[in-house]
Design goal:
The complex is a heterodimer of chains A (about 290) and B (about 250). Chain A is an all-alpha fold. Helix content of chain A is about 70%, strand content about 0%. Chain B has one domain (about 10-210): Alpha-Beta Plaits (2-Layer Sandwich), CATH 3.30.70. In chain B, strand 6 and strand 7 form a beta hairpin. Classes of the chains: A mainly alpha (about 290), B alpha+beta (about 250).
């Protein structure tokens, strides 16, 4: 799949933002006044900034409101509803903390659950696609949720939770990579099944439909950069998991926490780039590519 | 609406005969010609006369080489357009309801004025049947020439998809798969019409007829004695020439 910057930024940042909102909603921490304002401002900048970035890859962003209509079948539509609901509920909860110094517990819990549900809906946009075997696994939502929570724990300064969640996210990430490398072969979809010609012999793509490229090849067949995948995986793990875990294990200062957050976000971008760049869409088979 | 109908009154679709298709791409051209000036936004081209041309097509013809364990390889031309699946994954993922499957005839269409161009339907389609038009920013796909097949302003013989009407080899057939007596149902039954990527669970309506086995070239050829090499052991001048050239 084409690793579009808008989608990488959207899923990474909104995941972090909703992760932070989840922690804030559960009252970990439960600041008031100006400190609460800063926490909520960071969470909203990330979550809303990410959602806005996602509109940049739309052909007609001015019609984006129509995306609320098909929540019965479409995960994209469900994500739209859940994100707005989470942001509204958490805005009410945050206003209580910032302006009145009051934490309305149940409102926070509801907001936290909605925030997590938003991340789940985002992950299911990808996880539902049978056409991309690497994504079509329960590990996709698990990966998005653990990474979102780990980032949220890190941003909210919940060191012991963050440590556990970072390690958990690292384990899920490695499991996702290992199973993902076998996913296309195990899906049963091949050039033989794509053409129905497998019974007659070995099928080889002889000539593409056009000499030039097309939308399908640009969008679904991204092979550039895959050759560095194993190096990038290591870089991603070191930045996203290893560095913050090491930094959180030494005595806490805000500067160390800042470095840990920057490393985590950088590693998260690499991981999310790989998530798209390494994903093979079965339509590539028709072109003799994967 | 993006909820799929549980049943459609008719199941209109195509039979594509891989045995007959000669790979002339006439269906590609007639499809682009008709659909760029009828239903919805035009099918744009980018850099059409430049170094790296690219454009939107609703129908593309691939070519595959099939090498059996023994004998000669076979070349199969393979036209591919929307298969108007019964369980169309492109429809259910659409967040706006722009994509829908018609209850009356099963045609999968895009209402372009509702399309936000998110591209998720193209991601969900295993066949590459949907292409986002780079100029219009909306999703384009085969309409089964919905503006021809019911069009009473056209002569009756033209009331079929442009690709079917134009195919010089008779490799494309249009009809109703819900009717077991229809031309397409009979062809599919007789020739073992198959689904593409059945494991994806899309239940495509369009069927592909597999290429027939090729004739085998026998051992005996009545002309064989006349086609023997002329001279394996040259004599006279040729023998001298052969020898001289060897020694050089």
């Amino acid at each position: 799949m084409h690793p579009a910057p808008s989608v990488i930024i959207f899923t990474s940042l909104s995941g972090l933002g909703f992760g932070l909102l989840t922690f804030l909603g559960f009252g970990m921490p439960s600041p008031t006044g100006f400190v609460a304002f800063v926490f909520f401002a960071v969470a909203y900048l990330l979550a809303v900034g990410g959602l806005l970035a996602s509109t940049f890859h739309l052909g007609h962003p001015e019609r984006a409101l129509k995306a609320f209509s098909q929540w019965k079948t479409s995960w994209l539509s469900r994500e739209a509803w859940l994100s707005v609901a989470a942001l509204l509920v958490m805005a009410a909860y945050g206003a209580g903390l910032v302006f009145f110094g009051v934490a309305v517990g149940p409102l926070g819990w509801l907001g936290a659950v909605l925030s997590l549900a938003t991340v789940f809906a985002t992950s299911m946009i990808y996880g539902q696609l049978k056409t991309v075997p690497r994504w079509n696994t329960k590990l996709t939502p698990l990966l998005f949720l653990t990474l979102s929570l780990a980032g949220g724990g890190l941003l909210s300064g919940q060191i012991s939770s963050a440590l556990m969640l970072l390690v958990a996210a690292g384990i899920v990430q490695i499991a996702y990579w290992i199973t993902g490398d076998r996913a296309l072969a195990q899906s049963g979809t091949s050039l033989a099944s794509a053409t129905g010609l497998g019974d007659n012999g070995a099928v080889r793509a002889f000539e593409p439909p056009h000499t030039g490229t097309n939308y399908l090849l640009r969008e679904f067949v991204h092979v550039v950069g895959r050759k560095h995948a194993s190096k990038l995986r290591l870089i991603s793990l070191i930045l996203m998991i290893g560095t913050p875990v090491a930094l959180l294990s030494i005595p806490f200062t805000h500067w160390i926490a800042l470095v840990a957050v920057i490393a985590h976000v950088a590693g998260l971008f690499v991981s999310r780039w790989l998530f798209f760049a390494q994903a093979e869409h079965v339509v590539g088979l028709y072109y003799g590519k994967r | 609406m993006t909820e799929l109908p549980t049943k459609t009154d008719r199941k209109l679709g195509l039979v594509i005969d891989l045995d007959t298709c000669v790979g002339c791409h006439a269906c590609v051209i007639s499809c682009k010609g008709w659909n760029t000036e009828n239903y919805g936004a035009p099918l744009s081209d980018q850099n059409a006369y430049g170094a790296n041309p690219s454009g939107t097509f609703l129908n593309r013809v691939h070519s595959y080489e099939v090498q059996p364990p023994e004998g000669a390889a076979q070349l199969v031309h393979f036209p591919k357009s929307c298969l108007h699946c019964e369980d169309a994954p492109c429809v259910t993922v659409c967040p706006t309801g722009a994509s829908y499957k018609r209850v009356e005839d099963g045609i999968v269409l895009v209402n372009e004025s509702d399309c936000i161009g998110c591209g998720l339907c193209a991601w969900a389609c295993p066949y590459g049947a949907r292409e986002l038009d780079a100029a219009e920013g909306v999703m384009k796909k085969c309409t089964l020439c919905v503006d021809r097949i019911y069009n009473e302003n056209l002569p009756e013989e033209d009331r079929q998809p442009a690709c079917v009407r134009t195919c010089p080899a008779g490799a494309r057939h249009f009809g109703d798969f819900a009717d077991p007596e229809s031309n397409v149902s009979v062809l599919t039954a007789e020739r073992g019409g198959m689904d593409l990527m059945p494991e994806q669970g899309t239940k495509p309506v369009n069927k592909y007829l597999p290429p027939r086995p090729k004739d085998q070239i026998g051992e005996i050829d009545i002309l064989a004695p006349l086609l023997k090499p002329v001279a394996e052991n040259p004599k006279g001048f040729m023998a001298w020439l052969d020898k001289t050239l060897e020694t050089l």
